[in-house]
Amino acid sequence: MEIIIAVAVVALIALFLISQYNRLIRLNITVDEAWAQIEVQLKRRADLIPNLVETVKGYAAHEQSTFDAVVTARAKATSATGVADVAAADGMLTQALRGLLAVAEAYPDLKASSNFLSLQEELATTENKVAFSRQFYNDNVRSLNTAVKTIPSSFFAGLAKVGEREFYEVEDPQDRNAPSVKF
């Protein structure tokens, strides 16, 4: 009878260890998946930008510095790696796009163009998806980091080769402010 109890205790401990290990692995994979979704949405946005720039160029050819800023920011955003670099490049691209859309406001014919309106709508939809992906990533990073730092899973983090991950943070303080709307 004592042997059965000892085997049962060992089996329960083994199941506990396995479940903690697997939980950390699942959380790590979820963070990787969330990061991949951010990259997918940023790629989608980067693919839309050349069409948007070309559409605006047709109406506002003398705004070359704005176009150059958008193209440069897009190039940096598509070549960035790592959470901090991608976040910084993403902020730069967002600022450049704001400048491009501000230029578009000055051209009533452009604002009425169905091509421009559809590109602008697609960009707005993509921006919403990017924001959701960032939030989803940060939620998963929080779960993983909590598991890595709390007992009992912290004892298994090294064994599972899982560590804390970096949050996706906005570097530009201007991006934290709500835009002002004036009529």
Automatic annotation (TrEMBL):
- What is one Pfam family matched by this protein? LemA
Q: Does the keyword Nucleotide-binding apply?
A: no
Cellular component, GO, one term: membrane
Indicate where this protein resides in the cell. Answer: Membrane
- InterPro entries to which the protein is assigned, alphabetical: LemA-like_dom_sf, MamQ_LemA
Signal peptide start-end: none
Q: Which UniProt keywords apply?
A: Membrane, Transmembrane, Transmembrane helix
Q: How does it sit in the membrane?
A: Single-pass membrane protein
Q: Can you tell me which family this protein belongs to?
A: Belongs to the LemA family.
The entry's protein name is: Unannotated protein
